[in-house]
Amino acid sequence: MEAKELLQQHIAKIASIKEEDFDYVFSHFKPMSFKKGQAILSEGDKVDCEYFVISGCLKAFFINDEIKMYILQFAMPTWWTSDYAALYNQTPATISVDCITDAEVLCLSSEDREKLCSEFHQLEHFFRWRTNRGYIASQKRLLSFMNNNVKKRYEELLALYPQLYNLVPKHLIAAYLGVSRETLSRLHSS
Amino acid sequence: MEAKELLQQHIAKIASIKEEDFDYVFSHFKPMSFKKGQAILSEGDKVDCEYFVISGCLKAFFINDEIKMYILQFAMPTWWTSDYAALYNQTPATISVDCITDAEVLCLSSEDREKLCSEFHQLEHFFRWRTNRGYIASQKRLLSFMNNNVKKRYEELLALYPQLYNLVPKHLIAAYLGVSRETLSRLHSS
DNA sequence: ATCAGAATGTGATCTACATCACGTAACCAA
DNA sequence: TTGGTTACGTGATGTAGATCACATTCTGAT
Fold it and tell me: What is the DSSP letter of A129?
């Protein structure tokens, strides 16, 4: 599916934007292509944009003491990602985003998002909905972290994203679960 | 400060609502008072409302296997709380809310929130902002969970809410940190 | 086709935290 | 004042998962 159509259908599920208005809205999104392994956003960068995934798979991650990596989110088509804390507080990125596979994204600047939100009430509604979904998912993951052991969290993850198992290397799954790759490996045999 | 004034000032930081419009908006909020220990929302309940705290301190928590409690949020004045997953998905509550101290809250039904959001673009803007803040805070806490040991998380919590130390019993702080009360107790002596 | 580096598996050991067990102090309600 | 419940501290012991070490396979670039 084409980028424009994908975004349009994605928004249309929640908000109704007139066809001609959508053309205008879409003109603010900048298409970008990346190769596997390329960085979209790196720690320390000034963060201007958020990204809507058209194809491929991204990871948003944090690196501690330049040693351990924790993955906050795998971003698949129709998902949005960025370092939102940095984006809203206008601080340098602490979260990085890069490509697990080749990827196409649409880039929307924070400035344009705010402009569009104030021009189109329905778009503001859409973004409220989207953020709300993210908030609920994040709370759920937090609870799972407190409540479940690694094995259960692993099963939860695979139930939620069955594609992930074959798509991304195991050590990245470990980094999402917040567990060492060795421990994840041992889960299979038990 | 009066409930109405508190809410008005809270919203005014982000959105501009005309004085006469605010009267109308405020009429949808239902003031309620609770005593220390009272439940505002219990597991299994139908969830219709979210709550804006005027005074006192609430906790939003999850109980696992009817044994362990995990606190998702302490809600202080000007904070909002509810079981948002249940509220948006129209499912029974899995998260409960009750009062750590006597408390006054304003109750806003989901229906009224949606109605007001569609009537006032600025209010939709406010709620997008609010949810966004919650999302960012939740992601930050998730990272802290993956990255920090109990002692660091404890210090972070106290830095964020210095009042909490004297206001709430230690075993509730342990339930927020996701740690046993014994371990938390031992942190003091080390 | 070959070679270097990345990804994965697996054993041995270490450690932060949980759990169990018990004692003491604080806070109530009758 | 008293007796019961809740809060809190602290020792002994158990355990999930981390860390270290090394072997094996896979992958991608030349």
Answer: H
Distances, alpha carbon B157 to alpha carbons B145, B152, B164, B165, B169, in Å = 12, 9, 9, 9, 14
Chains A, B: CB pairs < 8 Å:
86
Average pLDDT over residues A59-84: 94
Smallest Cβ–Cβ distance between A139 and the set B121, B138, B145 belongs to: B138
* Partner-chain residue, chosen from A64, A131, A142, that has the shortest CB–CB distance to B141: A142
Please, which pLDDT band fits residue B185 given cuts at 50, 70 and 90? very high
d(CA A113, CA A127): 9
Nearest nucleotide to A36, CA against C1' atoms = D28
Q: Rounded to an integer, what distance in angstroms lies between the CA atom of residue A118 and that of residue A116?
A: 5
Measured torsion, CA atoms of residues B136, B138, B143, B145, in degrees rounded to the nearest 10: 160
Straight-line distance from CA A153 to C1' C25, in Å?
A: 40
Backbone dihedral angles phi then psi of residue B17, each to the nearest 5 degrees: -120, 130
CA of residue B170 to C1' of nucleotide C25, angstroms: 15
Range in A52-61, A160-169, A176-185 with the lowest mean pLDDT: A160-169
Distance CA A147, CA A81 (A): 26
- pLDDT one-digit tens code per residue, A114-152: 999 999 999 999 999 999 999 999 999 999 999 999 999
Helix-, strand-, coil-residue percentages of chain B, each rounded to 5: 50, 25, 30
> Which single residue has its CA nearest the C1' atom of nucleotide C8?
A185
pTM equals 0.95
